[in-house]
């Protein structure tokens, strides 16, 4: 299914992110598409909260990836790898920082802003989130699992159920 929601504040976007983050498991990858200022980092802050990360999350400035330690609801440690490929200059750079390992993270979850900068180098399965600016404080957010019947499909169903009504 493809879930479409609208948020009316950064706080609501963070709350949605937390609902996503609580449902992610080690190995999961989330791709965030959307223009500058669409809310990708804001959503990531919520995902981080949902993963039990306590430190402040902002886009990595001098590196393409920032790592944050979280703790799942079960108490198990889980890492958040926050990638922002906006400043990627050429695809060769992906190899040099080990992009491939972030597409199949064993001990955590990867959240990737501007994944389109990596061309068609994509993980096998991922949660695809698109954010669109629909007004000064309004964002239209669509969430779907790729492939549609893949491992992340239940996550979308659960978020739909949790945000309904
Ligand atoms: N409903 C909303 N959801 C998310 N952000 C919102 C919302 N309404 C207003 N904003 C504002 O929009 C901006 C979103 O910025 P953010 O850094 O999250 O975007 P981004 O998609 O990560 O941009 P970039 O491509 O530059 O990294 C923030 O200033 C935030 O306060
Ligand atoms: Mg950002």
Give a verbal description of the structure.
By secondary structure, the chain is of the alpha/beta class. The protein has a single domain, classed as Rossmann fold (3-Layer(aba) Sandwich), CATH 3.40.50.300. The protein has helices spanning 10-21, 40-50, 92-96, 99-102, 153-163; strands spanning 2-7, 29-33, 65-71, 77-84, 108-113, 126-133, 139-146. A 7-stranded mixed sheet has the order 1-7-6-2-5-4-3. A hairpin with a 5-residue loop joins strand 6 and strand 7 (139-146). The radius of gyration is 15 Å and the shape is globular. The mean pLDDT is 95. The chain binds adenosine-5'-triphosphate (ATP) and magnesium ion. Adenosine-5'-triphosphate is lined by residues 7-10, 12-13, 34, 36-42, 59, 86, 113, 137-139.
Q: Quickly name the level 1 CATH class.
A: Alpha Beta
Order of strands, widest sheet? 1-7-6-2-5-4-3
What is the CA-CA span between the terminal residues? 17 Å
**What is the CATH homologous superfamily assignment?**
P-loop containing nucleotide triphosphate hydrolases
Gyration radius over CA: 15 Å
Helix content: 25-40%
Outline the low-pLDDT stretches. Answer: none
Named CATH architecture = 3-Layer(aba) Sandwich
Shape: globular
Count of DSSP helices? 5
> Strand fraction band?
25-35%
User: Secondary-structure element sequence?
Assistant: EHEHEEHHEEEH
Quick check: average pLDDT? Answer: 95
Number of strands: 7
Structural class: alpha/beta
The major pleated sheet works out as: 7 strands, mixed
The CATH topology comes to: Rossmann fold
Q: State the domain count.
A: 1
Bound molecules: adenosine-5'-triphosphate, magnesium ion
């Amino acid at each position: 299914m493809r879930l479409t929601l609208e948020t009316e504040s950064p706080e609501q976007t963070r709350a949605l992110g937390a609902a996503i983050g609580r449902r992610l498991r080690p190995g999961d990858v989330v791709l965030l598409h959307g223009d500058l200022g669409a809310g990708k980092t804001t959503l990531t802050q919520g995902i981080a909260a949902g993963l039990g990360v306590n430190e402040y999350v902002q886009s990595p400035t001098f590196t393409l990836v920032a790592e944050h330690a979280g703790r799942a609801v079960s108490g198990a440690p889980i890492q958040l790898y926050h990638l922002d490929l906006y400043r990627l200059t050429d695809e060769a750079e992906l190899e040099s920082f080990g992009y491939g390992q972030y597409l199949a993270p064993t001990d955590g979850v990867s959240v990737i802003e501007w994944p389109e900068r990596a061309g068609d180098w994509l993980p096998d399965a991922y949660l695809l989130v698109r954010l669109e600016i629909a007004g000064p404080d309004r964002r239209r957010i669509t969430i779907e699992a790729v492939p549609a019947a893949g491992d992340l499909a239940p996550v979308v169903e659960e978020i739909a159920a949790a945000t309904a009504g």
